[in-house]
């Protein structure tokens, strides 16, 4: 008897834990699939009946949504790719050298508010005449992606056994060869984790693009925020746009939950 | 993997290893050079330039001149800035304590084995992975005083409807609610990582000695878990102080200035009023505040460690 009660209690606890997350996203979906009339009905209509796709169509019809999507894709892929290119070797170097101070610098980047980089960089990009292009947005996103990649990779390379590389070095390989042909292939799982996290936090970033983007260079979060400012009343298209922005990230989270949880559990990697 | 912001990678090198280390530094230094250049350009340069600008009256389009410490002096008599500090501390206190309590509780649940655990855990962490602007938008719609679903839920329980973000008295607790929803998962993950690393032996020994569930939690789980809880506490404190996206999207500091935290004040000074010099001084003070709070927590952590 006690056991059954305990089990029921536990099931209720789990239900309470997952419902805030689930319900907000379900409500987002519901708003996106209802007509304007249903969205402003009182009492609220919960289940779209029948579901309508008009909101999604109007998002694409009334805004340069495809352009903003492209901007987001270019920014996140470039910022992640560049971060991997320089961050994976750096993680390796720091792990090998046990360079605590270099690691400390990464920590400071984690502590500093994103806005503080923006004031000087905003002026710098103005002087360089780079405003109005995606370049400044990609460069500032490195503030998020490089620390994530370096941090995950330090942990990963430290966990690898040193014997294999040492054997390669004894056999006459250069340090670069030992990295390229021994450590790097072994670190693939770590690189996957770093790539996913860096992509997600770059995709989600709002503040850098909000300050630096012009009309043509908005990323999706900025574009969606602008919709809120100018179209306060039409909830359907707003919710549809919000859903489209966050859907890639939600799907990626569901698909790669193991890697994401491993990466995040390792310790508070978060951008911004 | 190391505990992120916690355990610094690399340990103390022994004296005997020193020559080998220097040798290592020469050989592996090149791996760090490209990242070093980027860090220099996008992290250290902004820092140096911010310090420089904070000593200037610097308006975009309006030229600039040296004013020494005037910006700082002005800042500490600026009523609006001082109340933004108080507001930030109020927001931070709530946005740290609540996610800590819920996060630790959730971790204790998720540490057990049950059917569909993987799925439940993934749904639980969705809020922290979702795009903040997108979820902030949905929350904004839910806060609508006449048509929002939250007020409908309140009326179902016989509670009078709330003004949520449209009332100076309720706006900060409301924003805290969003922050709790958003970041409790991160606390849960860090603590869950701690629970996963607990050894089994002490529990078996305690069982043989006849300890009950509460006693083994109190005397084994809690002390072993404490370092992880402190790490989560430090990370949460830093993040709560820095909170921006959801506050900006949902209220932009309003109504009036009643949800204007330091970060929002900083944004408005810099990019709405273009007072770059003044905003730079805000950055410096803000950073010192964050570092000193983080240092205070780290010091507590070391004391906890020594005591354990």
TrEMBL record, chain A:
Topological category with respect to the lipid bilayer: Multi-pass membrane protein
Keyword field: Cell membrane, Membrane, Transmembrane, Transmembrane helix, Transport
Annotated ranges, domain ABC transmembrane type-1: 69-256
Cellular compartments annotated: Cell membrane
GO cellular component terms, A-Z: plasma membrane
Family statement: Belongs to the binding-protein-dependent transport system permease family.
Official protein name in the record: Sugar ABC transporter permease
Transmembrane regions listed in the UniProt entry: 12-33, 73-95, 107-128, 134-157, 190-213, 233-255
GO BP term, example: transmembrane transport
Pfam families according to UniProt: BPD_transp_1
Principal place of residence: membrane
Transferase among keywords: no
PANTHER family listed in its UniProt record: INNER MEMBRANE ABC TRANSPORTER PERMEASE PROTEIN YCJP, MALTOSE TRANSPORT SYSTEM PERMEASE-RELATED
Superkingdom: Bacteria
Alphabetical list of InterPro entries matching this protein: BP-dep_ABC_trans_perm, MetI-like, MetI-like_sf
UniProtKB/TrEMBL annotation, chain B:
Signal sequence annotation: none
Superkingdom of source: Bacteria
Keyword Transmembrane helix: yes
Keywords annotated in UniProt: Membrane, Transmembrane, Transmembrane helix, Transport
Family per record: Belongs to the binding-protein-dependent transport system permease family.
Phylogenetic classification of the source organism: Bacteria, Pseudomonadati, Pseudomonadota, Alphaproteobacteria, Acetobacterales
Protein name as annotated: ABC transporter permease
One Pfam family matching this protein: BPD_transp_1
Membrane topology: Multi-pass membrane protein
One GO term describing the cellular component: plasma membrane
Subcellular location: Cell membrane
Transmembrane segments: 28-49, 89-111, 123-142, 180-200, 220-238, 276-299
Residue ranges of every copy of the ABC transmembrane type-1 domain listed in the record: 85-295
Main location: membrane
Record flagged with keyword Signal: no
Source species of the chain: Teichococcus deserti
């Amino acid at each position: 008897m006690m056991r059954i009660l305990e089990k029921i209690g536990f099931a209720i606890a789990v239900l309470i834990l997952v419902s805030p997350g689930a319900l907000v996203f379900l409500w987002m979906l519901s708003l996106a699939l209802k007509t304007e009339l249903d969205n402003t009905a009182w009492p609220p209509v919960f289940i779209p009946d029948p579901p309508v796709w008009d909101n999604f169509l109007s998002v694409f019809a009334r805004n340069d949504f495809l352009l903003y999507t492209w901007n987001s894709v270019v920014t996140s892929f470039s910022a992640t790719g560049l971060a991997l290119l320089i961050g994976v070797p750096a993680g390796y170097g720091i792990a090998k050298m046990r360079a605590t101070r270099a690691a400390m610098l990464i920590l400071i980047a984690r502590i500093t508010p994103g806005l503080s980089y923006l004031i000087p960089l905003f002026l710098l990009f103005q002087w360089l005449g780079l405003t109005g292009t995606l370049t400044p947005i990609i460069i500032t996103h490195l503030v998020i992606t490089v620390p994530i990649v370096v941090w995950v990779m330090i942990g990963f390379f430290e966990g690898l056994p040193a014997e294999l590389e040492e054997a390669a070095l004894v056999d006459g390989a250069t340090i670069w060869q030992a990295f390229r042909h021994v450590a790097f292939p072994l670190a693939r799982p770590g690189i996957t984790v770093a790539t996913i996290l860096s992509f997600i936090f770059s995709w989600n970033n709002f503040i850098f693009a909000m300050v630096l983007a012009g009309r043509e260079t908005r990323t999706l979060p900025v574009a969606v925020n602008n919709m809120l400012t100018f179209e306060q009343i039409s909830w359907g298209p707003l919710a549809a746009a919000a859903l489209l922005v966050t859907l890639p990230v939600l799907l990626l989270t569901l698909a790669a939950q193991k890697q994401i949880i491993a990466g995040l559990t390792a310790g508070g990697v978060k951008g911004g | 993997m190391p505990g992120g912001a916690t355990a610094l990678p690399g340990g103390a090198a022994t004296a005997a290893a020193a020559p080998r280390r220097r040798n290592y530094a020469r050989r592996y230094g090149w791996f760090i050079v490209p990242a070093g250049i980027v860090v220099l350009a996008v992290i250290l340069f902004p820092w140096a330039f911010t310090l420089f600008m904070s000593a200037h009256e610097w308006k975009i389009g309006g030229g600039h001149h040296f004013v020494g410490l005037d910006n700082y002096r002005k800042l500490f008599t600026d009523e609006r800035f001082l109340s933004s500090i108080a507001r930030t501390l109020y927001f931070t206190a709530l946005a740290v304590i609540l996610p800590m309590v819920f996060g630790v509780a959730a971790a204790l649940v998720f540490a057990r084995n049950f059917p569909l655990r993987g799925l439940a855990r993934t749904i639980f962490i969705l809020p922290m992975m979702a795009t903040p602007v997108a979820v902030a938008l949905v929350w904004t719609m839910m806060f609508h005083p006449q048509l929002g679903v939250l007020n409908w839920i309140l009326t179902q329980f016989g509670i009078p409807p709330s003004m949520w973000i449209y009332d100076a008295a309720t706006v900060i607790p409301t924003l805290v609610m969003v922050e709790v929803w958003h970041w409790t998962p991160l606390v849960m993950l860090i603590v869950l990582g701690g629970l996963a690393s607990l050894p089994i032996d002490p529990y078996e020994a305690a069982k043989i000695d006849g300890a009950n569930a509460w006693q083994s939690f109190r005397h084994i789980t809690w002390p072993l878990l404490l370092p992880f809880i402190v790490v989560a506490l430090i990370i949460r404190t830093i993040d709560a102080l820095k909170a921006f996206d959801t506050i900006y999207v949902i209220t932009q500091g309003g109504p009036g200035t009643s949800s204007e935290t330091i970060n929002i004040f900083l944004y408005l000074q810099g990019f709405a009023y273009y007072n770059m010099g003044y905003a730079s001084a805000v950055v410096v003070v803000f950073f010192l505040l964050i570092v000193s709070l983080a240092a205070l927590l780290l010091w507590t952590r070391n004391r906890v460690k020594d005591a354990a």
